[in-house]
Amino acid sequence: MAPDAGSIRHTGTAGDVLDIVLAGFGVAGQLHASFFRTMGDRCRIAAIVDPVPLRRRQAAELYPGALICRDIDEALTSCKGHVVIDCCVPSCLYTTLLERALNIRIPQAVLIEKPLGWTPHEAERLLSLCDNPEVRYLDTYSCSTGISRLKTFLEKNPAPVSELRVVFTKDRRHDSLQQRGFADGTAPEAWLIEGPHLASIALALGGPIQSLLHAESFDMPFRDHAPLMAHGGGRAVLRHRNGIVTTLETHLFSPLNRRSVEVRLADRTACRLELPPSGATALCSTLTVEKDGRTILTETLPDSPMEACLREALCSHDPRRLDPRQGLLVSQTLHEIMEACRQPHDTAFHELTA
């Protein structure tokens, strides 16, 4: 959507202090805000937008110098500097937010962590908007030193990859009670929260996806918070064009807090990468490689994917980490998974045609 004729383009230079307009002050928004606070020489939080009164009050207490707004219109018309919009809203609201924001003014940058459309059509609309040079894609795990090290190891190893497994687990009861991740009453919540990360890692390590082989999600009732019913996890099996089979698995109500990637190669080599879990204080990844059951490599690497991703988006001259076509693949894959999980079924999995 083209901006109004009266919109003003702000270009800025490397030395300018950027005004961050934080769209959303939920879990992601508060994490991003804490990072921006450490970059006082590069940016300041100028405005925080959230429709929920309680979160607006929390934002006002934590960031007294910021303008607290109910909608993006007020924030963008009030901020006069070099504005960067950081989208921390649920994925289902990205398209509406972007269309509205770009119609009010052209910001210096718009940061999007998970370019996910709720349907393939919406994903195409979203990625069409993202063709604007101001929009910067934040593929968090593309900035992970652990993922980069694993990719390097696989590229140098002559044996082909035969199998991938990506598993994210955490107890997200609080998130679910806050309805984080819901797009509507039937949304498979687990896939909306962790799905984009799981799928982007699969694409980064396994390449383009040919077909979805199986998909499932399961409900987790909270008896002490009845009648809430939340989608607490799921599993999907994908086939890549190169023949690699990847399993994506997420458990939102597990006592374990883990983010791991397992890779099996044709020569009986097995790699395991433990990424920093959510909320970890020691931000590092650990890569372990075994051959025939014997450990041949163990490395621990400093790793803070989210902070590295945001820093690159603000400071890099070439911050486009995620190709729009890859973003569309992520969205289409997740849409197919979620559609499969919505259908009633008697068996553990759906068998889908390629």
Polypeptide structure, described:
With 354 residues, the chain is an alpha/beta fold. It has helices at residues 27-37, 53-62, 72-78, 94-104, 120-129, 145-156, 173-177, 189-206, 305-315, 324-342; strands spanning 18-23, 43-49, 67-69, 83-87, 109-112, 135-137, 161-171, 209-221, 229-240, 245-251, 253-265, 269-275, 284-291, 294-302. An 8-stranded mixed beta sheet has the order 8-9-10-7-11-12-13-14. Strand 9 (229-240) and strand 10 form a beta hairpin. Helix 4 (94-104) runs parallel beside helix 5. The longest helix has 19 residues, at 324-342. The model is unreliable at 1-14, 181-188, 222-230 and 345-354 (pLDDT under 50).
In short:
It is built from ten helices and 14 strands. The chain is of the alpha/beta class.
Keywords:
354 residues; alpha/beta; eight-stranded mixed beta sheet; six-stranded parallel beta sheet; 14 strands; globular; disordered C terminus
Distance between the termini: 33 Å
Biggest sheet, in brief?
Answer: 8 strands, mixed
The portion of residues assigned to helices is 25-40%
Give the strand tally: 14
Q: What structural class do helix, strand and pairing data support? A: alpha/beta
- Mean pLDDT value: 78
Widest sheet: strand order? 8-9-10-7-11-12-13-14
**Shape call:** globular
- Number of continuous helical runs: 10
Series of H and E elements: EHEHEHEHEHEHEHHEEEEEEEHH
Note poorly predicted spans.
1-14, 181-188, 222-230, 345-354
Strand percentage lies at: 25-35%
Q: Which value, in Å, is the CA radius of gyration?
A: 21 Å
